[in-house]
Amino acid sequence: MPQADQGFSFKVLTINTHKGFAAFNRRFILPELREAVRTVSPDIVFLQEVLGAHEKHSQRFENWPVVPQYEFLADTMWADFAYGRNAVYPDGDHGNALLSRFPITSHSNLDVSIGGTEKRGMLHCVLQVPDRELQLHMICVHLGLRERHRREQMLAMGRHIATLPAHAPLVVAGDFNDWRQQANTILQREAGLVEVFTQARGRPARTFPARFPLLRLDRIYVRNARISEPTSLANQPWSHLSDHAPLAVEIHL
Fold first, then answer.
1. Which is a Gene Ontology cellular component entry for this protein (predicted)?
2. Burial of 187: CB neighbours in 10 Å, binned 0-12, 13-18, 19+
3. CA 135 centroid distance within chain
4. What is the C-alpha separation between 253 and 251, in angstroms, rounded?
5. pTM listed for this prediction
6. Alpha-carbon torsion 223, 176, 110, 228, what sign?
7. Domain residue spans of the chain
8. In this predicted model, what pLDDT tens digit does every residue of 113-168 receive, in sequence order?
């Protein structure tokens, strides 16, 4: 018999991978990043700015993976993964991705680009927890640089979330670029989302730039879930592996 969802918990981590390069693009560090993520042992990993392909980089770097970056990061620890391609250019493409220890039963990439600006998307994945009658909804996002664009994108996110089952556990995580601190109010009003660091400590975590975090750009939001141990990974080796500090949290249902 399937178990009830009571007492179930899982860990999530979100990180802007900076396309596999250290800050200022000085060094290709994707193998080091994979090892660092493994040490946290998250069940679900939200990735932003992850490369699907890049022809010139693959020829330039000897240790460039033969598979897409998200598949390289998943390796043997995360059996399922999904990729939402957003930006496409002559040498390749990049977007958001989700790595999961639970089966991904469906996924879609919703285009939330505004006009002729940089392409942006929301990767929505539905996960099935084995041996439980429980589906998890995960949305990985990377919002725009302009406040007006971010607002429109968050309103679009709210409209999409309104179509989901009202009582389903939901996690929305990624790089919100929300340096003016508007997202919490909008997403609470439009979608009933609660930001985990705000709930635990009164405000979102500082994540950018990773070596000396000042701006609170990255977020983890939840609905129909409880949280514990929100953590900002701003120390070494993380500060050398991306320009954004990763965030992690334990989620309880």
1. membrane
2. buried
3. 18
4. 7
5. 0.94
6. negative
7. 9-252
8. 998 778 999 999 999 998 888 999 999 999 999 999 999 999 999 999 999 999 99
